[in-house]
Amino acid sequence: MPRKKETITLSIPPGTKEQLEALARRLKIFWGKEPSVSGLIVAIAQQQLALGEPFSLDSNQVKALQQAIKALQDVGHIGEAQTILTLLLSQGKLETPLRQSLMKQLSQPTEGWRIQIEDFRARKQPFCLLYRNSQEQELEFTVRYAETTFYEKRFYLQVWCEETKDVENENPDLPELWHNRCLRFDKIQSVLPIGGEWRGELDSIKVHLQFTGWLAKAYQFREEDLEHQLKDGVLHVTRRVVNPFWLIRELSRYWEDCVIVAPDSIRDRVKQKLKSLCHNYDIEIRD
Q1: Which helix (H) or strand (E) segment is 138 a member of?
Q2: Which of 40, 148, 187, 228 could bond to 24 as cystine, CB 3.0-4.6 Å?
Q3: Which domain holds residue 74?
Q4: Tally of domains in the chain
C-alpha cells in the first residue's frame, strides 16, 4: 500500500524554482532523471543537509588552531593535526596567504617519512636521506642506523650516517660523535633504500655527572643512565650520551645543583656557554 504524502503550496519569487532545481542537481537529489525540489525540502527537514555559510574564524581563533596543529605534530599525532588542517581549509574563510601556507603543510608527507623510516628500521635497511636544515641547506646522508627519540615536546629522528664533513669544524673536540645527527621529520625531503650493512646503535660517549642539594634525592633516573651512586649527599651518575646538545639543555635547568665532571670536551662546552652568558650580562670573569 503506497505511503500517504502531504502536499504544501509555496509562494516563491521568479527564478527560485530553477535555483532549487540546480541545488538539488548539485546535491544529486533526483526524481527519476530530473532534479527533485520535493526531495531537497525533505532532506533539509530531516537534517540530512547542513545550511548556511562556512564558519569564519577571527585572528585569535586561527592562531589558537595553528598552535594546536603544531602541538599535535610535535607529539607525533600527525593524523589529528591533518584533520584540523583539512577542517580549516574546507570550512574556514581564510586569507589567501594563510590558505596557501596551510595547504603546503597539508601536502608535507611528514607521517609518510616516519612510517617509511620505521619500516626501514624494522628491516635493518640502510637508506639515503635528503635533508633541508634550518639554514635552508640541502644535505645528503647515508644512514646506517636510525631511531626516533622524544626531546622537549617533539619527536626527532636520530641517525648514524657516513658523512662527517658538515660537523667536523663545529665539533672538533668530539670526533666520537661526528657520525650522529638529530633531524626533524618535517625537514626531510626524501628517503631512498640503499645497499650495505645496518649498524646496531648510535655512537656514544660516557659522561660523568654529579647532582647535589635537593636534586641528589629528587633526580629521576633515565634509561641512558648506566651507573649511579649516592655518596656523602652527592649523587654520582654515569650516562650514555649520543648528543651533547640535548644533554646541556637538560642540565642547564638544574644550574648549581648539577656538575659535569667528565669528559673535558663536554665540560669545556658548558664553561664556554657560561662565559658567553656572563659576557651578555656584563659580568667580569677571571680566567
Answers
A1: strand 138-151
A2: 40
A3: 59-108
A4: 4
